[in-house]
Fold Carboxypeptidase Taq.
Amino acid sequence: MTVTTTTSADLRSESVRTLYDQVMARCKDIDHLNGIGGLLNWDQEVMMPPKATAVRSEQLSVLVGVLHEIQTSPVQGALLDELEYRQQHEDLSIVLNPYELANIRLARKAYKEETLVPVEVAKASAALSSKSAAAWAAARKESDFSKFAPFLEEQIKLLRQSMGYKIRGGSKEEARKINEKARASLGLSETDECYKGYYQGLMNIYETGFKEDRLQALFADLKKHLIPLIAKIKAKNFQHDNSFLLRDYDITKQIEFSHSLAKKIGFDTDAGRLDVSTHPFSGGAHPTDIRMTTRYTLNNIKEGITATVHETGHSVYEQGRNKEYFGTPVSQALSLGIHESQSLLWERMVGLEKPFWTYALPLLKEKYPEDTQLQSVTVDQFYLGFNRVEPGFIRIEADEVTYPMHVILRYEIEKALVEGDIEVADVPALWNAKMKEYLGLDVTEDRLGCLQDIHWSFGMVGYFPTYSLGSIYSVQIFTHARESIPNLDEHLAKGEFHVLKEWLNKNIHQQGSLRESGDDLVFDLTGKHLDSSLYVKYLTDKYTAIYDL
Amino acid sequence: MTVTTTTSADLRSESVRTLYDQVMARCKDIDHLNGIGGLLNWDQEVMMPPKATAVRSEQLSVLVGVLHEIQTSPVQGALLDELEYRQQHEDLSIVLNPYELANIRLARKAYKEETLVPVEVAKASAALSSKSAAAWAAARKESDFSKFAPFLEEQIKLLRQSMGYKIRGGSKEEARKINEKARASLGLSETDECYKGYYQGLMNIYETGFKEDRLQALFADLKKHLIPLIAKIKAKNFQHDNSFLLRDYDITKQIEFSHSLAKKIGFDTDAGRLDVSTHPFSGGAHPTDIRMTTRYTLNNIKEGITATVHETGHSVYEQGRNKEYFGTPVSQALSLGIHESQSLLWERMVGLEKPFWTYALPLLKEKYPEDTQLQSVTVDQFYLGFNRVEPGFIRIEADEVTYPMHVILRYEIEKALVEGDIEVADVPALWNAKMKEYLGLDVTEDRLGCLQDIHWSFGMVGYFPTYSLGSIYSVQIFTHARESIPNLDEHLAKGEFHVLKEWLNKNIHQQGSLRESGDDLVFDLTGKHLDSSLYVKYLTDKYTAIYDL
C-alpha cells in the first residue's frame, strides 16, 4: 500500500496538495483492490474450475472486508474533513484543477456512503443476497413467486434500512428532500415510517445525480408513444424473413468474425481479452486490463454478433478512460446509464443499421463462402431481417422497441414496493396486468413474468431504469455525433469506426465522472437535457418504414 | 473478513479453544489473500494482456501491503502471546489435537517472521528485487556479470540485514546458535559483523527446519560419487539414439496426450486447470483451484511430457492437502524440498522408467499413427533414448545425474557470499572453476555460467539446495513406496497410477506441515533420516546399466 498515515492533529499545517495526494493514494489502493475483485469475478465466470466455487466466494468476502476497512479508514475521513474545512475557507480552484476538485467531491461521497451504513447492515445484506439468489433460482425453476416472496420482503426491509442511514446521514440529498417534503405533507415525525424518496436514493446508487421526476417524465413520454407503436406493429401481423440468420454457423468462424469486429471497432486486445461465458459481460481489472465476454449460438448468428458489439461498446468506454487520472474517482465511468449508452450506441445505432452492414455483410459472406442462402442476401434484406420487432415475455430477448416497456413495468413495481405503496404479494398480479397493458401479452407463468430477473434477489432495486436511460442517452449522443462528424455514415459503411470511437473517447469516455450526472454530461455535449423525443422519433421513423405503418 | 478483534485485557478469561479459533480465523484470511495473489500471478503468466503489466505489479504490491497489515496485526500477536503463556502453564494437548498444536506453532513462527523485520527493510527488498531482476536480464543479455554485480551486492547486504533481525529476534534458532558459536570462537562482540549461520537461516525460509550440517554431509556424499560417475559416462563417449523424440510432433496432439497423462496420474480437472506458459509452474489459489502450466516444443516431445508430469506431481500434492485443515498452516506443503520430491518422484521415478512407458508408449503411438519411426520404437529403445546423460552448462536443461552438481556449485558459492568468505566479484571465476571440476566443462560466457539463473536477482539465496533435497527425498520416498505397495511396478505398467497417488496422498500430502522438517517426515515414514546413499545407488545402478560402465 502506498498510504501514509497522518494523525488529524497534523493536518491543519499540511498543504491542500499534500492532503489531496494522500486522499488519492488511498483511492488508488481502493481502485486496485476493486480491480482485483473484477479479475476474480471474470475468472469465476470464464476460467475457474467448478470445485473452486466455495473458496472463491470466501476469497471475495475477505476482499470485501479488506476494502471496507480501507474505505472507512478514519485517516481518510480526517483528510476529507480537513479538505472540506479548507474548501469553506479558501478557493481551492487556485491549487486544484476541475478534475482534482471532482476527485475530492467523489472521494467524500464514497467515504460517506461506505461509513454511514453500519457494517452489520452491510454484512446482513451480503449474507441475505446469496441465500436470496438461491431461493430465487429455486422459485424460478418451480415458477412459484411465493417461494421467493419472503426473501424479497427481507431485501426490501434491508434496503430501506441502509437507505435510511444514507438519507439521514446526508449522502442522498435529493432523497432526503423528497422524504422531508412527504413527511411534512403527511404530518409525520422523524421517527414515523415514511419511505417516500427512497427510490430516488436507490436509483442514484446506479445512476448518480439523476432526478427521479425527470425519469418519470421521460418514461411517461415513452409510454405515450411506444404502447401505440407496438400495438400498430402487432396489428400488421407481418414479419420480414430472417431465416438466413438462423442457419448453422460454424462457431469457430463466428468467433473469428466477432473478434475481428471488436478489434475493428477499436477494442485494444493488448489491453484486454475477449472470451466466452454463459452471460456476456464486460469487466476486468483496469482500463489496461479489460476482460469482456460474449456467447455464440450455432443456429443464430445474430446473438453472438449483437452480444459482442454490445460488450465492445462497454469495453472501449473502459479502455478509453482518462489515463492521467487512472486510479482516481474522476477517471471512472459516470453511471450505469452512460455505460449502457455506449454499449447500445454500438449495438443499435451502429450495429443494427445499414451503414454498418454495408461494411460487415461482405465480410460475413467471406467467412461462409459455402452458404449459398447467405451469399444471396442483400444489405436491405439483411437489415429488415435483423430488425424484427416481436413483443415477448423476456426482457433480455426484447428488441429495441419493446425493451423500454419491460423496464418501465419493473420501475413502476419496484418503486411502489420500496416506497410502501404495494406489498410483495401484489407483485405477480400487477406484473401480469402491466404486461397485458404495455405489450398485449398474457403471462401464464411467474417464470416468464416476475421471476425472470435475478436483480431483486441481490437487492438491486433502482437498477432497471439505467437500461432505458442508456437507450435514450445513446440516441441523443449518436444524433449529436452524426451532426458533429462529417459523413459519419460513409465512414461507418467503410468500416472506419475509429472516427466515431475517437469522438466518443473525447466526448464521453475521457469525461469520466467530471460531471454530477449523465444529464449534465449530455447537456454540456448537446446543449439539451436528456430528451426522450429524439428516441421516440428514432423508433417511430425507423419502424414505420420497416413495417410500412 | 471473519476476524473479530479482542483486546488483550480480555484474553486471560478466554478458553484456549476460543483463542485458537481466533488465531485460525486470521490465518484463513491470510490464506485467502495469498490465494488471490496466486491467482493474480497465474493470470499474469497465462492470461493477462501485455499492457496490464504495470498495473498488475501495482495490484500485487497493494495486496502485499494488505497482507503485511493482517500478518502483523497486534491482535494476532496478543492472541499468540496468550496461547504461549497457556502453553507454559497448561497441557494444551488435552484441548487441542496434534494438528491444532502444529497450527499454533506455525502461526507463531509466521507472525514472528513477519514482524521481526522492519517494514522499511521489507519494502527496500521488494523495490530492489524488481530493479535487480531487470539489471540481471540486461546483464545476461550482454553476458557481463559486472553489470549485475552491484545489485547482487545490494541484495546480499539486505539479506544479511533482514536475516540479522530474524536471528536476533529468535525466529531462526539454529542460525542464532551457529552465529553465537562463531562469534565466541572468533572473540567477537554482539555488534561486530559476523555472518556465520546466516546461510542456515536463509535456507530455512525455503526448507523449514533442515540443518545445514546435514545438507553438507549429503552434498559431500553426492560429490564423492557423482563426479566420478559423470566422468565415466563422459569417457564412454557414446549416446543412445533419441532421434524419435526430436521429430515434428503436432502440438494439438501433444496437448491432448499431456492432458490425458495428467488426468491419469490423478490431477483433478474439476479442481484445477492445465494451461500453457513460457515457464511451466504449478500455482493457483487453493487446493480446489490449482492452476498448473506446461509448454510444448514441436520438435522435442520429451519437453512437454516431462514438464507436464513434473508439474502434475506438484499439483496433486496441492490438491491432496488435508481438507479438514484447509486455510490453516498445518495443511500447507511442508517445504520446497518436499514439494520438489513430489514433482521429481512422478517425473523421474515414474516418468523416466520402463513401467510407465510400458503403459504410455502404446498411447503415444496411437496419437501419431502416421509416424512410422515412432511406431517401430520398442519400450527398451524409448527408455534408453529418454534417459541420456549429457553434461551441459545450463541447470534447467540438466539430466538427473548432472543436475545435483549444478546445485552444489550454486550452494557453495551463495553460502560463501552470504557468510562473507568471498566477494561478489569472485563469483564468475569461482563458478567457472567449479564447472570444470564437477562437470568437466569450460564456461566461456557468463550468460552460460553465473548469469543463467534469476534467483539471486530476487534475493533468493538458500533456495537452490531444495532442488537436490527434492531428488534425494524422492528416491527415498519412492523406494519406500515400492516396498509398501505390492506390485507397484505392475500397477504403473497398467497405468494404475492411483495406487501410488493415494499412497502419497496419505503419507506425504495430507501430512502437510505437521512435522518440523522434511527430514522428520521422511524419518517417520521410512524409519531413516534422509539418506543420500539410496540416491547415489539409484543413479549408479541405473546409468551403469544404461551406459554399460
User: Anything to note?
Assistant: The mean pLDDT of chain B is 96. Residues 142 and 287 of chain B are 41 Å apart (CA to CA). Residues 7-116 of chain B form one domain.
